Amino acid sequence: MSVIPEEIVKLSAKGLFTTVNIHGENGHVDRTFAIEFENELEEEWTLSDSQGNIHIVYYNKDILCPQIVYGWSRLSDFYGFKGDHNILFRYLSSKQVFGGYVDLPSPFAEYIRRGKFKKVNLHGWLQDVECTIFKSRNPSRSVTLCSGWKQFCRLHSIREDDKIIFECYNKKSSSDIRVLLLMTCHYKRPSA
């Protein structure tokens, strides 16, 4: 599934930083940005541009000399950078997600139970992810999305306070599930 460029622009940024692509060097990350978000920045970053291209790069987590150390040259090659270029990054999310699993709401849990699925394909606005299903036995009869859910949340910046909808493509029993973000309630830092 490709990224919808118009949707990327609408997402609110938690932070911004500018870097300069210096030919033959790693991608430098602004130290102020690295310090401000030190506790939530992960080593693996998913980058998306306004054209819908997705890139995975790796951050060294060093607040003294913060850099994108792996994947930067591929990024430079992809965009055809020759020489030095200024690049603006908008930081959209942290790893504050639901956790490794989520219990599905009752009506949807019953749909999954009736379909006898062992896995479902979650279709998000950035990427599709396969999730395994755990079905509890009586009396609770709950259905839980396990392996893959955390990755889906991380890729799509879904957090515990977000409201989401699970939607099926058609009325036939299908393991293809569309996930829609209904409302975001992300914390904004007050501007000084």
Write the layout of secondary structure elements.
Elements: H1 5-10, E1 15-21, E2 27-28, H2 31-36, E3 44-48, E4 54-59, E5 67-70, H3 72-79, E6 85-91, E7 102-103, H4 106-115, E8 119-123, E9 128-135, E10 143-145, H5 149-156, E11 163-168, E12 176-183
Parallel strand pairs: 8-12
Antiparallel strand pairs: 1-6, 2-5, 3-4, 4-5, 7-10, 8-9, 9-10, 11-12
GO molecular function, one term: DNA binding
Protein name: TF-B3 domain-containing protein
Subcellular location: Nucleus
Please explain how this structure is put together.
The chain has five helices and twelve strands. The chain has 192 residues and is α+β, with helices and mostly antiparallel strands. The chain folds into two domains: 5-91, Beta Barrel (At1g16640 B3 domain), CATH 2.40.330; 102-183, DNA-binding pseudobarrel domain (At1g16640 B3 domain). It has a six-stranded mixed β-sheet. It has a four-stranded antiparallel β-sheet with strand order 2-5-4-3, with helices on one face. A hairpin with a 7-residue loop joins strand 9 and strand 10. The termini are far apart.
